[in-house]
Amino acid sequence: MTDIILASKSKVRKEILDNHKINSKVEVSNVDEDPIKESLLKEGASPEIISKNLAELKANKVSQKINNSLVLGADSVIDLSGELISKPASRNEALNILKKLNGKKHSLISSVCISKNGSMIWNYTDKAYLTMKNFSENELIMYLSKISDENLYAYNVYQIEGEGRALFSNIEGNEDTIMGLPINKIKEYLELQK
């Protein structure tokens, strides 16, 4: 299968590519997401548009430096009734995010973009819907105490492949999408490039 460059430092995304026998190497984009998100929110952009823009920006930035290679950029955000929820910057912020999601249904949006020579040539966005059970604040604090700092700041407040599954009463959608990479669509695209 076509070799691809992953413009992400996400270990989970790299593992998904590896598990699907897609040869990849990592070239981190180092895009500063916060000012971009703020600017797009001021313009009234939806969480889905923000996710798409960030995935494209990451892929384009790396693909400008590496000629004639396919570069995969990805971004995932939580959409709670139109409110964008980003990765926490502290444990306190993580607790506040969990309190917001507590007992509610939200969507997790994962966007991917493939760029070549600095321009997007393909993109795809998928959504999964997760309904969180009701927890007391103490239960949420206990849950967070089981998650390492590295995992907490890398993968948002829950990891569906680990402890996070127990947070939800209902999950609708593709697990790879929830983990940040809708792999089946990526594979379909790469197959067409052969």
Description:
It is globular and about 50 Å long. It starts with a strand and ends with a helix. Strands 1, 2, 3, 4, 5, 6 and 7 form a seven-stranded mixed β-sheet that branches. It has a single domain (4-192), classed as Alpha-Beta Complex (Maf protein), CATH 3.90.950.10. With 194 residues, it is an alpha/beta fold. The longest helix has 19 residues, at 47-65. 40% of the residues lie in helices and 26% in strands. The chain has helices spanning 11-19, 33-42, 47-65, 91-101, 137-145, 149-154, 175-178, 183-192; strands spanning 4-6, 24-26, 71-80, 83-85, 105-116, 119-132, 168-172.
Secondary structure elements and pairings:
Blueprint: E1 4-6, H1 11-19, E2 24-26, H2 33-42, H3 47-65, E3 71-80, E4 83-85, H4 91-101, E5 105-116, E6 119-132, H5 137-145, H6 149-154, E7 168-172, H7 175-178, H8 183-192
Parallel strand pairs: 1-2, 1-3
Antiparallel strand pairs: 3-4, 3-5, 5-6, 6-7
Helix pairs in contact: 2-3, 4-5
Residue runs with pLDDT of under 50 for 5 or more positions:
none
The helix-and-strand class reads alpha/beta
End-to-end separation in angstroms reads: 7 Å
Residues in helix, %: 40-55%
CATH architectural label: Alpha-Beta Complex
